[in-house]
Design a protein that fits this description.
Strand content: 15-25%
Largest sheet: 6 strands, mixed, barrel
Number of domains: 3
Distance between the termini: 50 Å
Strand order of the largest sheet: 14-18-15-17-16-19
CATH topology of the largest domain: Rossmann fold
Radius of gyration: 24 Å
CATH architecture of the largest domain: 3-Layer(aba) Sandwich
Helix content: 25-40%
Amino acid sequence: MTNSYDDLETAGCIFVVGSNTTACHPLIATRIYRAKERGARVIVADPRQTQIGNLADLSVHHRLGSDVALLNGMMHWIIENDWHDKDYIAARTEGFEALAATVAAYSPQRVQDITGVPADDIKKMAELYATCGSAALLYAMGITQHTTGVDNVKSCCNIALLCGNVGVAGGGVNPLRGQNNVQGACDMGGLPNVFTGYQPVSDPAVVEKFSKAWGRPLSDKPGMTITDMISAMLDGRLKALYVIGENPKLSDPDWNHLQHALNRLDLLIVQELFLSETAQIADVVLPAASVAEKEGTFTNSERRCSRIQKAIEPVGNALADWQIICKLSTAMGYPMDYPGGPEQIFDEMAALTPKSYAGMSYQRMGLNGLQWPCPDANHPGTPILHTQQCTRGLGKFHAIEYQDPAEMPDEEYPYFLTTGRMFAHFHTGTMTRISSHLDHEQRSGYVTIHPDDAARLEIAEGDLVAITSRRGQMEAPAQISAEVPPGNLFLPIHFGEYPANMLTSAEAFDPLAKIPEFKVSAVRIAKAQAA
């Protein structure tokens, strides 16, 4: 997030796109409620009707995968009405002319034809966002999990820059991370092309610095994304897979394709708290400690690094993740020992990550943590990014044309399918489905279908239905609700008995980020045949 959670409450307008915020980020949703109570206008754009949409001053339902067109249409109307911040654009950005030329072709009427959102609503969205004071834009995986995910994010940045909403209180471009320490994992180098703090592995000076610190020559070649790994398993280039706290058997696309890839491995190691679907097929399971049984730091969506402190000792043979990794590294020939524990590891990382973490320490973080960048011990942390200028200097506009999703409905597969979360469960349900209280809230998977479609197909509430895509078929009970538009279906991702990724594609992914298009698949649906 460029801004902070508290800062949302000062916004004049909050634009939520591609985020079921109350279900997936309930604490952030409370900030939106408070902002609304203080007078903020709220816009929600989501293919489904969500609880956060019920709160909104304006809630629209655009066709799956049409985010670029919708945002281009808003920018067209903002420029048409002279609502853009010309002084900000002149002083702090570049590329405006190319952007303006591109969005000139996205009239509200044309965008209505692409997105299904009425032209008058597109105009109203643009007016609210551009004229209600500082505007915060929030997005989640409804923006990123597309073949055009990078384009979608750039379009979010475009509209924020257009209205001078980057680097200001109550504004910003604010991605809501999908899990509690995703930001921290990325900050720590949990990406294939960077070391900590996004220092590129392709930079010789960076490689030299880390090689010297760790006493081994390091590669300057980026590693594989998950999408690349699956292909490498299939063609024999990847022989072993070490999975830490992830459940790819449920979370990765195209179940049959993935199962075939996992079967090609010589060795599958899973480090987990519970016997997830992936752990059940592993050759080795390493028992990890829970959050209550270990110490360290988490960094959340607002870039706040906070300490976690151990409440109890690990149960049985479980160890903290860092201890398991140290033992494995030592056994493989690289002695790794941190007698000072997680604090020593953090200090090493901070010393090697000067621009963002160098000023942090366990003592300075205290109870409330610190937000990066925090470059030195006297720095208070950074609640809002880019207040003086963008990291690259001038904020860059990207002129982006709309593209259809990889799969569109056709005669054989006439329905759009999207996947996501529901309020009671988290991710693949590895932990939440073990909780009796949460399991009581929702014990079974389901597929949501619009009442008009259900009536036409003679499907009643609770009927077992078969959903088929080009990858496979699965069956699930029907949930009939107008929360999805006609011609659309929704599957939650939490239930191993009803694996949504049986239907999603491993071949459709963003060419840059390599994120699969979980949010759009073409399917057909019918009553399941009686056994």
